[in-house]
Structure formats: C-alpha cells, structure tokens
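= Paired protein data =
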Amino acid sequence: MKSAVRREDVELLAPAGDWDCMRAAVANGADAIFFGVEKFNARARANNFRMEELPEIMAFLHSYGVKGFLTFNILVFENELEDAKELVDACIDAGVDALIVQDMGLVKMIRDISPDFPIHGSTQMTITSPEAVEFTKPYNMERVVLGRENNLKQIQKIGDQARLPMEVFVHGALCVSYSGQCLTSEMWGGRSANRGECAQACRLPYDLMVDGEQKPMADVTYLLSPKDLAAIDLMPELIDAGVVSFKIEGRLKTPEYVANVVSKYRKAIDKYFDGDTSKTSKEDIRELQQSFSRGFTHGFLEGTNNKKLVDGTFPKSRGVYLGRVEQILRDGVVCRIDAPLKRGDGIVFDAGDPTQKEEGGRVYDIRRKGVKIEGEAGEGWIIDIVAGRNDVDLRRVHVGDRIWKTNDPALDKRLRQSYETDKPYRVFPVHVRVSGSPGQPLSTWWTDVQKGTTVRVDSELELEIAQKRPMTHELLEEQFGRLGGTVFQLEELDVHLHGDVIVPMRELNSIRRQAVELLAGERPKPPVYTKRAVEVYGDASVPASPVVRGQEELTALCRSLPQVEAALEAGVE
C-alpha cells in the first residue's frame, strides 16, 4: 500500500562534522543537517563546530531552506548543568531547529526553559516500541529517532500506534549494541560511548572461546564488527511504513562521503515520488561502496540475520570488490575484474588477515591481452593490473588474494566540484507581479515561492509614455530574470501595464537588486521560541521565580525496598 506521506513531508537528514561537510550536504540535496559543537555530543573526535558559530551556521542553512539540528546526545553530569543550560540558551537564541537529546533530565531542563523549543528523542534513548514513544509524550517531543534494531514491521506498528513523526537511520556505521549503549569502552578504558568517547572495541579482533576452549575461526576474527547499513533499496518500504526523516550516519566522515551518500539518497527519495520503481543502479551502489563500506547490509530492517550483519573478516572500509588474483606477473597481477578500473585508482590486496601489513597502492597501467589501454577497463574484463614499482611488494601477494578498489580520484573530484564552487548551491523559484500606469511609479511584488515571503519594490521614477519602444513582457522578463549568482530564479511573471509606458533601464536593474536583497534578508530569519529564565541548582533546573512555601517537593533516591518503605514513612512525596 502506497504511503499517504507527501514529498514535502519527507526529510533527508545529513551529517556534518565541519563546514565542508555542511556545504556538501546542502549542495547535494539534504533537507536538514545534524551537527555538534565542542561540548555535549556523541562524536567527541569530530572537528565539531564552536558554540559561538551557531548564528552563522543557522543563517547559512536557513538561507537555503535547510534545517539544522544540534546533537546533544550524551548523558550530562550534575556539575555540567550550568554549561548545558548555556548551550540550550544559545541554541534557542540562534534559531536551531531542534536539539537531539538522550538524557531525560536534559529534556526536562529544556522544557523548563522553553515549552515550544523542538526536541528530538535520540536513538540513544533506545526507543524501539510504541510504549517507549508514549513515555516521551508528556515532554512534547517533536520527533523520535528509532533504535536501529527495529525492523520494517515494528516501524510500521510504532507509526500506527504512537502517532509521532519517526526518524530512522538508513546509511552508515552500525553499533554492535543498542545504539550508543555499549559499555565495553567505558569498562575497559574509561571512555564512555554515552559521553561521545567510544574506543570502538567492536572493531578489534577476538578469539572465540567455548567452554574454555579456543575454537578455530580461520580469517573470521572480527566477531563484533557489523557491516555498514545501506537501505537505499528499501526507501519505498520505509516511506510506506510512515518514516518521515531518513538519517545518514557519518559526522566523522569526509565531505566527499557526505556529498556522495546524500546525492544518492536524494535521488532514491525523488524516484519514489516520481513513480519510478526501478532499482538503484549498480553504478550508484559501487559509488556508495567507494566512499566508505565495510560491506553493506540492511541491518535489522528485514529482521535479524546475524550472518548477514557481521562478516567478521575485516573491521574497516574496503571499498569496491574487484576480484581475485589469478596470476602474479613481474610487474603486476592478472585478474578478471568485477567493477570498472582505470589508471590512478587505488587498490589493496587482501590476504585475509587485516592485522598484518597489506600491500596496496595506485594502478600504474592496465593491459588487456598484453596491450596497454588508456581508458577504463570494464566489468568482466581479464586484465593485467600493473601495480609494482615501489608501491607493492609482489612477493607478499598470492594467487587467490582478494583485490579491492580503495579509491577513485575521478569520483572524488566530481564530488568535490558539487560543493567547491562560487555558485549558489540551490536556487528557489520567484514569482513577480508588475503593475503601472503613466505618471505613477512602476510597482513590483516579488514572491519567494518556497518560503512564501513577498516584498514590494517601486521605481523611484514615474512611468512615462513611450515614444518608440514601450516596455513589453519580454523586456521585463529579461531584466528581472537576470538573477545569476543569487539563490533565486524567475519562474513566473505577471504584467499589468496600462498603455505604452517606459522607465529607464537602470530603474529596472535597481528594482531587481533591491528585491533580491529584501528576499535574501528574509531567508535566514530564525524561528522564534518562548524562553523562560531558569536557574540551575545542583542537579536540578527550576524557574527563577521564588517557590511558594508549602509547594516544595522532596525526592529521595532508593536502591532497595526497605529504603523505599523508610522514605514513605518519613513522608517523602
């Protein structure tokens, strides 16, 4: 059954660890960005932004009609509440579109400060059922980010019963535990995943012990390292299940990764609403793998299948699978390739033990039947891959070793060109209405269709009767349509002129410049939220107004039933 969700209701949510990633996301079609600042986010290793940059960030995003969500998705300690409140205040003032929050105590503080500032329940809240969604409703959360452990049927059930907008991860790294709840890093090294400092114990090699006896696992040693989520071919099912926000993981990834993944999922969403039921192309899948892939999986979306979830043979990105070494030559290897390859591409030889140094480097030349080829070798070709010289020690390469394409400079260049440009990343349609009579100024109304904002600009000079060439629809369309270098594009022009009239060309240019300046000034305007004065005392936030005697409430922490009974006897409420 096709979903009742409209195209404008669906959001593609992209990660940004720095400005280049943010620009890449905007340029390639993201509807919203999630990012962190230097404190209180689950990616402490990311470059992150600074709190004082929030107004600049939000002005940039809002100028393109893109929302910005700040990650506040860690547990907050009592001695950090003042700093936490400072960040919440800064977000409200800067017009951040929502905070992504894990800590329910922080949720309460935010609600004390503002009853209408949007809060998104983070995936670290482990919201995996309709009952969990109901638990959040007293706090008027705008959205919940479901745990990555839910399958499609469960997502549909949550959507039907809970009636709250749902956000779901569709691409990127998977946590071997419930998202962000892993305690291994904290127990072993004092680095808590719930504080943004995960040491990624899941990406280490392990021995399998059964009843005290070590079991041989051959090359399967990365027993806790899941593959990467890639649900691009499940987008129709997810939209039909009622998901409204599709989230891409990757605040530690490169801007090329962000540009690549966002553009592919933008295409998949648009295809659904255009009625195109064709599958994602093999080329698009390969390009996704090229940016980052530990092997792709649907995660838990189609149910639990541990063998599909964990491959166990490597813990890091491999790229695109090319094939296996069939013969070793003096200066390279022979391989029947499963994907296109060209000079300059990066490759690595996989002998099945990533803990050892792997041989790899750039492709220097490609030969087919002994003849050097200049272009791209195609899928299924048997070729000589020349990768010797100083890069690869062919004595350490063996027949049967897998070959992976780890880098494609041409793809990276194309992706960088999408955001390393002086041109606007997006343009928005403008409707213009023109009216005028002799002896009166020329009046124009310019409407930013996407934002719904209209501005009026009149000419300084009055219209005169034209002696030779009166203003025509075509002339006005040409002059008002000169919007290159701005975020606007003339889509519709409605002209109501009485008689053969004219104003100097400089007047038309002035009107256009003024209108663009006024419309552009409306775009970055942040949303306005209610904000109350709140003071922080120890481990609680309370309204700044004095508490009336008799309304105080004492809360006791109890760790056993006798303590509960004693607290009740003492009159604790």
